[in-house]
């Protein structure tokens, strides 16, 4: 399988999240990853220590030259960083219509550190949501985007439906921050809701789960899968990536991205 994914996101020097996790994920699932870097972070498993934004015009050029030469079957957007960068990305998406877009509304790192200025959330709501094929918020991100407090699955659904009313075409609302022995994610469209249940693994090694899930969905869309199928495969991949995490770092450790799919659809480490 191939499938070209253009990843627009920040870099993570620790390798567990951001563009590093995105590239690993798309590659493991048989796709080809190209990138437009929005920011360079000084980051490890314990937190984000510094952020250096990439100039807006350089972001624009990265997007345009990749699409013109290599092309893209799906675009995945992660960390934007600043409103200026977001405006550049919005303009680029409008120049290149017709490509599916997976929007991971990254506002805060797993460590709790902020990854965007105050204008990013507003731009996500007003400009980027209508351009995305699917948006993939976790509970804190969904609360920030909708103002809906979320403490259970019913509220999670209400938040997703609020995003649909705000212009999103589909919402993959992730329930990992809610309590319980299982995790329920909701894939919500205007017409239907899919419940995706999976086991909660008790571990501190969850750095980059959001980036990994969104990139796995993008790989599936780039390969011609429908959204429900791409999401189901992506969920299985992330669950295995957490299960086989290498145990690195002193904080929220990275996942194991080097996975292969068995005949039964399960994922196991390559080595």
N→C terminal distance: 21 Å
Estimate the mean pLDDT confidence.
Answer: 93
**Count of DSSP helices?**
8
Poorly predicted ranges (pLDDT <50, ≥5 residues)? none
Strand order of the largest sheet: 3-2-1-4-5-6
Estimate percent helicity. Answer: 25-40%
Describe the structure.
- This protein has 271 residues and is α/β, with parallel strands linked by helices.
- It has helices at 18-28, 56-69, 83-95, 118-128, 139-146, 153-165, 209-222, 227-243; strands at 4-12, 32-44, 47-53, 74-77, 101-103, 134-135, 170-173, 182-189, 193-199, 259-261, 267-269.
- The strands form 3 sheets. Strands 3-2-1-4-5-6 form a 6-stranded mixed β-sheet.
- Helix 5 crosses helix 6.
- The chain is globular and about 45 Å long.
Topology at a glance:
Blueprint: E1 4-12, H1 18-28, E2 32-44, E3 47-53, H2 56-69, E4 74-77, H3 83-95, E5 101-103, H4 118-128, E6 134-135, H5 139-146, H6 153-165, E7 170-173, E8 182-189, E9 193-199, H7 209-222, H8 227-243, E10 259-261, E11 267-269
Parallel strand pairs: 1-2, 1-4, 4-5, 5-6
Antiparallel strand pairs: 2-3, 7-8, 8-9, 10-11
Helix pairs in contact: 1-7, 2-3, 3-4, 5-6, 7-8
């Amino acid at each position: 399988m191939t499938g070209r994914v253009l990843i627009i996101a920040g870099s993570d020097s620790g390798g567990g999240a951001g563009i590093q996790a995105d590239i690993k994920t798309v590659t493991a699932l048989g796709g080809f990853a190209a990138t437009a870097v929005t920011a360079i972070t000084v980051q490890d498993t314990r937190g984000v220590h510094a952020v250096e934004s990439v100039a807006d015009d350089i972001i624009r050029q990265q997007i345009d030259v990749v699409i013109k030469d290599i092309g893209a079957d799906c675009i995945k957007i992660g960390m934007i960083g600043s409103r200026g960068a977001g405006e550049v990305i919005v303009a680029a998406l409008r120049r290149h219509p017709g490509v599916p877009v997976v929007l991971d509304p990254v506002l805060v790192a797993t460590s709790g550190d902020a990854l965007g200025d105050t204008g990013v959330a507003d731009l996500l709501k007003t400009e980027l949501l209508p351009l995305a094929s699917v948006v993939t918020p976790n509970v804190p991100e969904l609360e920030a985007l909708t103002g809906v407090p979320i403490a259970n699955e019913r509220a999670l659904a209400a938040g997703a439906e609020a995003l649909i009313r705000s212009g999103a075409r589909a919402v993959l609302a992730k329930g990992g921050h809610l309590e319980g022995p299982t995790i329920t994610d909701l894939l919500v469209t205007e017409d239907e809701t899919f419940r995706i249940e999976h086991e909660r693994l008790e571990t501190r090694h969850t750095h980059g789960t959001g980036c990994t899930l969104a990139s796995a969905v993008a790989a599936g869309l780039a390969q011609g899968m429908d959204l429900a199928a791409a999401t189901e495969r992506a969920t299985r991949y992330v669950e295995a990536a957490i299960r086989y995490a290498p145990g690195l770092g002193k904080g929220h450790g990275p996942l194991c991205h080097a996975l292969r799919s068995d005949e039964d659809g399960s994922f196991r480490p390559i080595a």
